Amino acid sequence: MKPIFPTVYSTLSPLALASLISENYGLDAVECSFFLRGVGDTYMVASNGKRFVLRVYRPSHRTLPQIKAEVLLLLALKDAGVSVSYPITDVGGNSILALDAAEGTRYAVLFNYAPGKALNILGDEYLGNLCREMAKFHNVSSTIILNGSRWRFDVENTLFRPLEMLTTAFAEDAEGYAWMVEAAKFAEQKITSLGTDSFSNGYCHFDFLPKNFHFDDGGLVTFFDFDFFGYGWLVNDVMTFWQHLCLDVHFGKITQEKADESFAIFVVAYRSVRHLSDEELSAMPYLSLGFWLFYMGFHTTHDQFYPFVQPAHLKLRADLVKKLLERYWKR
User: Fold this and answer.
1) Are residues 77 and 223 in the same domain?
2) Structural domains of the chain, count
3) What is the pLDDT of residues 131-186, one digit of tens each?
4) Per-residue pLDDT tens for 147-157?
5) In a shared domain, residues 59 and 161
6) 4 lies in a domain?
7) CA distance 15 to 37
8) 117 in a domain, yes or no?
9) How far apart are CA 105 and CA 97, in angstroms?
10) What are phi and psi of 206, to 5 degrees?
11) Cα dist from 223 to 134, 175, 185, 246, whole Å
């Protein structure tokens, strides 16, 4: 038999995965359908009226120790009563499956489905529920000790290393790249001046956008997609939601006044559960550049994200970031 031609990425059969899930988790009448290709492959799973999500990780994206750390964090959050989509244990007591794919071993985790749906614009009650739950998450993530396999969200890894990764991608826009470099230096200066030694540290989700949490009909929130979580200043999570509000203002979905009112509600509710200093809040506009650069840098690393770093798309993204910074930075 001729050997299989070397493969860097395969899409696993939903039918075969349904059979595997049925066997490993003791579920009946399993239906599985492909849903999303991203950092990993996401499948929707159903069994006798119950819904689940199967995440199949790419070995080039996430190592087994990194996946184990994600599982440990989510189970700790579940045990602490934080509302998250959590890993399901199979009949053998395992949370991680090892699959023999064409490109080698791929790992998979089955999660319970986060009830409800994503909402882009939130009322006051929903805002309060969201930020209180985020603060509860931070109460756990600031104390848990994991295996050290996850990355750190600091100025090096969110500003300067991504800029190094983007050098080639910006080859046709030297002026835009130079602007980003100077902006990163300015952001570092502003962040450092705020006395970060007093900032709260822990594991951050780093992507608290509406696509990553669901609200049920009663307004209760459930968090999911912790794929990018890492260690750093916890205000980064507050910043990512604030950045969502800034984008809604930029695209005309809400007014700046409404965004300010919403964020004020957010802060009050968060502070009802956990301390958040004025200095941490002051750092958010400058931390926001790290949010954009971190993900732009990641887009250079794997083939399915290459369209995002083509010159035309990259220039649009850089122009958007520049407009946001010019609006919200104090120089």
Assistant:
1) no
2) 2
3) 999 999 999 999 999 988 999 999 999 999 999 999 999 999 999 999 999 999 99
4) 889 999 999 99
5) no
6) no
7) 17
8) no
9) 10
10) 70, 15
11) 9, 39, 33, 21
Domain that holds residue 275: 124-328
Distance CA 72, CA 229 (A): 12
d(CA 246, CA 329): 12
CA distance 24 to 46: 15
Please list the residues that pair with 215 across neighbouring strands: 117, 221
Work out whether the CA dihedral 266, 272, 273, 274 comes out positive or negative. positive
pLDDT at 1: 67
Percent of the chain with pLDDT over 90: 89
Here the CATH number for the domain that contains residue 311 is: 3.90.1200.10
Which residue from 69, 43, 47, 73 is spatially nearest to 56, judged by alpha carbons?
Answer: 43
Rounded to two decimals, the pTM is 0.94
Tokens 């509860």 belong to residue: 136
Q: Are residues 150 and 233 in the same domain?
A: yes
Residue of 267, 133, 330, 293 lying closest to 213 (CA atoms): 133
Pairing mode, if any, of strands 221-223 and 152-153? unpaired
